[in-house]
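Section 4.2 – Deliverable D4.2 (structural model, holo form)

The reporting period included a commitment to supply a predicted holo structure for the target in complex with zinc ion. Inputs used:
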Amino acid sequence: MLTKTGNGGTGLSRETVKELLRLFKEAQTTPLSFETLADVDRFEESLEKEVGLQPLEPVDITDKEQDATPVILWCRQTWACVADLYSNPANAEGFVAELEDSGESEEAHRFTEPSTGSFWREAVAGLPDGASIAAVILYSDATELAKDGSATGHPVYVSLGNISSGERWKPHGRRLAALLPDFSKHVVKPGVDVARRRLEIFHTCLEKILEKQKEVESTGMRMKDPLGVVRYVRPLLYAYVGDYPEQCKVAGTKMGNQTRFPCPKCLISNENLANADARWEYRTEEGQKLTLAQLQAFRGRTALARAETVESTHRVKVGIWGFPNGSTTWGNPYRSLMCDVMHMSALGVYKHMVDCIRAMLPDKIAAMDIALRNVTAFSRQSLFRLPSEGKHYFANRGVFQAFEHQSVMQVLPIILELVNAPAAIREVVSLYVYWHTEVWLRPYHTEDSLDVLDLLTKKLVAKLVDVFGEQQSSEFNLPKVHAMLHVVDDIRRGGIPAHYCTDMYEHLHIALMKRPYRTSNKKNVESQIARKALVAELVDILARQEEGAEDSAARNGALSQGPIGHVTHALTFIVEWPFRLVKTTRYTIGMHSSLEPLLFSTAGRGSPTLLLLITPLTTQMHKDSASYS
Ligand SMILES: [Zn+2]
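Output (structure tokens):
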């Protein structure tokens, strides 16, 4: 096993680095190993004490009357995450602590970052004491960990609207707040409605992790911003991001267009989902509580189920209730529910539209796939990745990812023109691509551009129904189509929709959920994932210290080596406890791009234990790679 080199901390020997690499490779395919669990506990304790990192801890929320198996929530307070992110010097660049009066006119005002929307302005005006705002972004989503459905991960992540969108996706820009209970092995007592019980558990968990955040929203707290300025801060829920089913779960509302009010945010009726001129009222905590009180009067399952469908609300106490400013227009938690690009567009309305085209132009499918392959031949952009040749997109052979749909979408108008598709279809597809670009790719909006977007959205929704309505089983009367109509209001409230992008979080699933699961012993998976999140944070803190002390010449030197193409630079940290950084080394690993923080013990029993942490620092194009084509 690895031992400390005897060179007094001036650098690791080549042999040691070789050994680190060997261990690293091994650790990618074998379970993370610790000598004893007690070792890990000690390490975590020292982290909390000396670095201020609060680990995720198990909370037993089993209800003995209802649950036959234990229900465990791994969590820390969202407030702990918010405080850490708010004070983190790494988030200094572009951080918004206070609204500045730019003196611009209403016409010239640009809606970009969250602080440019009405939410921020109205909240500042609505708070009694001129407090600074921590604009909390929550995101949750369940993901399958095992292919056979025997394990799911359900993380809740926290980020801040104050952090510039350039920094928010980086490790120091977000935190894992909780792993909600895995229901794949959950059993309820006889006679208990399992779906209702699980929804109840979900909300109990939300309530638990939001407890402190709600308390500080009402009291405020003095703390430093990333630049070290002491401010009086109140956390406010700015956005809760999730796909449509997750939003309905958070809202405690029924989903699908068979229920009377299928939108988690508002009370639009199900027959008006694709009606561009229909108006809606937002749901409110007060209104939902009244509905709950009505539902509680029902006895008997059938009567209750019927009432729930009519009211489109589940009989459950909702975790996003109870924010001190929840009854204001800007603080209304239902307004914070946000759908992201991938689920609303690429995997939502766009996909339905392509299905309609397939049904309407059966004899052009082959020609469209040939046209698509010709596009591939001259496009080699990294953000534009069309399905590979083996797949036939229009013939619908193969499994397509969101990025593939998005890429095809961009060239779809050209392809339809090449195959001489009917003008009506070409028109609505072009409108769609234009809409998608205006919503998701525009860096900012103005009052004028929002007026245009409003007209564009209404025209597009009407055309979708007109041209494709007969091909789609609900005639495009879908919650996702209705969600398109919320976009303009949402931009006025909180800036451009790029802030509700789930790509970053979905990507985290791979590093923080799926790989730890694959390399775990399949028991106590949550504890291993929780540990991994902590390690990622520690590595982030260490990497920042290293950045500060870093000699840029050394970095350039490292860049000039390695193979052509992508070069990954990695940092290793060797740490011992009580917490002490023994050694940091930077090295280049060549073509690997899937490096991630790892933590493993490298000493035998009885000797001082060392921990090795490896993190990818950057993945950059090698300077010679310009000639790579
Ligand atoms: Zn709505």
